[in-house]
Amino acid sequence: MRSLRTAPAAVSLLVSLALLAAAVLAAPLEPRLAHKHRSLASAAVSASNVSDAAMPAGNVSDAALRAVSAKRINARFGRDKLVRGVNLGGWFLLEAWETPHVFLTSDIERQQLSDEWAWMGAKGARAKPDLVAHYNSYYTEQDFAEMAQAGLNTVRIPLPFWTFVPTVSPEPYLVNRQRAALRRALGWSLKHGLDVVLDLHALPGNINGQDNGGRLGQQDWAKDPKNLDRSIAALQNMVELYVNNASYGGVVKAIQVANEPRINAQLSLPFLGAYHKRALAAVRNAVSPTALVRPTTMFSDAFQDVTKYNYMFPQGDFPPQQLVVDKHFYFVKQWDRSLPDNDEELLRHVCAIGPRLRKAHAVRPVVVGEFSLGRTTRCVDYHDCKGRTIAHDLPSLNSKSNNLFMRRFAEAQLATYEQAGGWIMWTWKTDAAAAWSYQAARNQGWLPSDVSDPTQRLYTPAPGSATDQRCVSEQPSRAPRFAMQS
After folding, report:
1. Quick one: which of 147, 7, 191, 140 has its CA closest to 427?
2. Which of the chain's ends, N or C, has fewer CB atoms near its CB within 10 Å?
3. How many helices (H) and strands (E) does the chain have?
4. Which segments show compositional bias classed as Polar residues (predicted)?
5. pLDDT for residue 148 is more than 60
6. Are 123 and 188 in contact (CB under 8 A)?
7. What's residue 473's pLDDT?
């Protein structure tokens, strides 16, 4: 997400997949790759030392693999069904505002740490065991079950490059140790019917200069060709490990090649476009003939307007059926001073986005891969949130008027983004930022209990009644219920 520190078709197939889900969860661990197919991908895998104790055993028979691989389909992510999802932020890539508790352990709580790079240095010998413990505990199967119960159908999993390729000096990151928890996440996703976007969120050298790129203030990705090579290798290994292995049941529906590139003096649109073209070829060429699904390649629009998409993604180089564009929206006044202060004006502003998204989506798929209900930041100085929880944050947001606005604001965003390919909220949970947590917002009543049930949308305008570019009505169809109200 944009940094809070700066402004920046058969029943048999379904049965087969269900059995595969069980295999993922039950399989013993085995240090091998399931498939090595093309010399390019094999070389990348070898170079990254991906021998991995977190791989499934691949205990599906060859005959079963042949039968299911014959049914391989293009994922068409963002096309065939509305995406309704959440990001799993704060898990495999640390951001202090999301998980202050990770930065406030007794050994480092007196320090001011800006990012995972600094955290690794401060923790010293405790970095590895503490980070692995975080990977193993922060998300559990209960989270995935709750996501499915909430009517969600997708998770976007932000991942750093060091999950897939070695670091180079002086990079301090913990290499490969995310994979055991990631393996479980894919199994839980398959079990609970959630599609997966694997998002290469942090690239070598940092593509945006934000803490979500690994090191705040560094934007050196485009300065060294080796950074691009390592990025491509990371994508190839991602595909080899989690797309080509049939034990994951084809749960990965999209591969995102970068998150929020920052266009400035360090990175031009043409340079980014050249990487995008190379990444598209790398991802598609890395998919094995035995893969169950060919995932869609997902590209950030780098916060560019939809009017630039024809320039950024010319159809000759980027066939629309092979890609989806990732658009992010945040309505935070600290980041965009032009945003309306008035609630009604802000809702009209949100609703006015819908027709433009719909027009862009008609040419090439667009999914809003990040948004939130937050209008202000939280825990920017994470020390301010020591010991705080969602329960501490809610009293500042749960007045009667704000509860009603938050429900309308949420429904306005959902209605707007559903005019394109759908949405993925940032994030499922946080320590103490209620408006940035889907889980907290749902529990409070700002979001429907089951977002897939249209009868739970309380502010859908009656046919013919919408005016002033409103996508939500002024009054609810019935009184909302909120868990807490001050």
Report:
1. 147
2. C
3. 15, 10
4. 466-476
5. yes
6. no
7. 95
Q: Is the separation of the CB atoms in 95 and 89 below 8 Å?
A: yes
Q: Residue range 18-35: average pLDDT?
A: 42
Dist CA 442 CA 475 (whole Å): 20
pLDDT per residue as tens digits for the range 28-73 = 333 333 333 333 334 444 434 444 434 443 333 444 444 444 446 8
| pLDDT, position 462 | 75
> Confidence class of residue 486 from pLDDT cuts 50, 70 and 90?
confident
Query: Phi and psi (nearest 5°) for 180?
Result: -60, -45
Contact yes or no for 368/308 (Cβ under 8 A): no
Of the chain, the end-to-end C-alpha distance in Å amounts to: 30
- For residue 205, name the pLDDT band (cuts at 50, 70, 90): very high
**What residues contact 52, with CB distance under 8 A and at least 6 apart?**
31, 32, 33, 176, 179, 241
CA–CA distance from 318 to each of 48, 199, 249, 312, 469 (Å)? 28, 19, 27, 9, 32
54 near 179, Cβ under 8 Å? Answer: yes
**Count of CB atoms situated within 10 Å of the CB of 222:** 18
Distance CA 198, CA 189 (A): 12
Helix, strand, coil % in the chain, rounded to nearest 5: 40, 10, 50
65 near 246, Cβ under 8 Å?
yes
Bridge-based pairing of strands 195-202 and 154-160 is parallel
Give the CB-side neighbour count of residue 66, counting CA atoms within 13 A. Answer: 3
Name the architecture of domain 11-456: Alpha-Beta Barrel (3.20)
pLDDT of residue 467: 52
